[in-house]
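Hi V.,

You were right to ask for the full record rather than a summary. Here it is.
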Amino acid sequence: MGFEGQRKAIRGVSGHKRTGNEAVFRAANERLKGRLAGLEENGTVPFICECSDADCLQVVELAMQAYEGVRAQGERRFVVLPGHNGAGDNVVGEGDGFVVVEKIAD
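Predicted structure:
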């Protein structure tokens, strides 16, 4: 199943299942990271917002080092656009054009 198929499959899911949405976006970003590592423009790389909204395909631009720093902080941390944090998200950091959220146990 491709990325868009995965998003459609999880559309309409709420509560603790939102973490699954975020995990799909993270997996897509990990695939992008490998392909875009040498293509940084203006010091940033385009990633997909990792919010829990299955319909969100907006782009978050950040430095590869910042993205990898969030990944190193654990499985419960996600990079989202400002205002895309929702119920069950605790904002734990901010950058230029993005926020880092930590998933709170449901």
